[in-house]
Structure formats: structure tokens, C-alpha cells
Amino acid sequence: MFILPELPYGYDALSPTLSAETLRVHHDKHHKAYVEKTNTLAQKAGLEGRSLEDVVREAKRRGDQGLFNNAAQAWNHAFFWNCMTPQKARPSGGLASALDQAFGGLEAFKKAFVEAGASHFASGWVWLVTGSEGLKVVSTHDADDILVRDGLFPLLVCDLWEHAYYLDYKNDRAGFLNGWVGEIANWAFAERQLAAANGQGQGYRYPAAVDGEGRTSRDQGEQRPTA
Questions:
Q1: Per residue in 110-151, pLDDT tens?
Q2: 118 and 191 both lie in a single domain
Q3: Nearby residues of 182 by Cβ (< 8 Å), 6 or more positions away
Q4: In the chain, how many domains are there?
């Protein structure tokens, strides 16, 4: 069974960019529901005990849309929590250089990220990814994620579903995105992800699942594929 990971900070730690009420509803209600539904559907699909990354990819391969939607949303949300921090900072090292090369600097990246997210129709996610062409901003619809995109590796993601921001920003998605990327984006996490994409360390992995015999997906040798 997959667990609901705890937030890596307190509910009020991201205020005023995101309120404690928003985080409680988003994490304790929405994310929890995706995890619970994934556990039910993964068991029915014979995938109990597999890593969540593997479940997402296998559901996509089988065309099991119900399992894919819930498993991908469970993974996306867990990744999203790690993409935020109360410690405001700026990119450094290799990530700063990569942003300069791809966008012409941090401010240009922020503009591209906000524009991509604000113009995205309906629900979904906006990502900073890396691949053979360097860094770029992409958006995905509904539950779709980067795990099923060959050649891309996720560095940051921001949730575009209304439940992520509506209590605090109403219909001002651009205002939410500006605050998000300017105040609480976790650049240290993105730097670690970029290093992992370049073969230095391991990228983010969802907490291990446990099957009916008490074995974890890590015990079974599952590895998170990289780009």
C-alpha cells in the first residue's frame, strides 16, 4: 500500500503565499483521496507492492485510465510538496547556469513559467524539465505527468488545478503563479533533481509501497528510471 507522505513543512509555513487552510484541504483531502484510490485500483490491477513510478507507467502502457489518473496525481502531488519551501532563495551552481542558457536568466524563466501556467486551459500542471535540449517549461493536462514522457526529467512542478490556489487567489491563477515561483519555489530541490538527471545522485522517488507479504518496492529492486 502507498502512504500519504507528510508535508515537508508545517501547514502555515508557506503563508502568505499559500495559506494553512489551502494546504490542509489540498494535502489532507485531495492528495489523500488519490492515494487511497490508487491503492484500491493497483491491487485490482495486480500491481500491489510495485513502486508508484512503475504503477504510473504500467497504467499508461495498459491504457488503464482510472489507475493512471489516480496514481499520477498521487505522484505529482508528492513531487509538488517537495517543490516548495519556506526558505526563499535563488538558483545557484549548475541550475543557475542552465537557466541562463535556456531562458536568459531567472527573471526570464519566471516570466515563461507564469505565462505557460496562466495560459494553460483548465486543470493540469506546469513543469520545469530538463532533457537533451536543455531546460524548458512544459504543461500537462489533468493527471498527465513527466514520468511517461521519454527523454524528460522533472525539476519543478506547480499545480494548476483550482483546488491548489482558489481559496487564496480565487480565479487569479497568474497571481498565484507569480507568488509561487517568486517566493516559495524550492531551488535546492530543483538543483538536486538536475544533478540526478546528469547522473549525480538519485532523483525523487515516492515512498516505497508495501505488498501483502510485507515486501517493499525497493526490496524488489525497483529503480526510478531517469531521462
A1: 999 999 999 999 999 999 999 999 999 999 999 999 999 999
A2: yes
A3: 110
A4: 2
Residue 202: other Cβ atoms inside 10 A:
12
Q: Residue 216, SS3?
A: strand
Asked if the peptide bond before residue 154 counts as cis, ω within 30 degrees of 0, the response is no
Q: Residue 91 in contact with residue 156, Cβ under 8 Å?
A: no
Q: What is the CATH number of the domain that holds 181?
A: 3.55.40.20
Angstrom distance (rounded) from CA 184 to CA 55: 30
- What is the CATH classification number for the domain harbouring 42? 1.10.287.990
Cα separation, 7 vs 20, whole angstroms: 12
CA of 218: how far to CAs of 48, 82, 159, 222, in Å?
Answer: 13, 20, 28, 5
**Residue 166, Cβ neighbours under 10 Å: how many?**
15
pLDDT at 219: 43
Residue given cell 515516492 in the structure block: 206
Q: How far apart are CA 106 and CA 91, in angstroms?
A: 8
Read off the pTM: 0.93
**Residue 210 predicted with pLDDT over 80:** no
Residue range(s) defining the domain that contains residue 176? 93-197
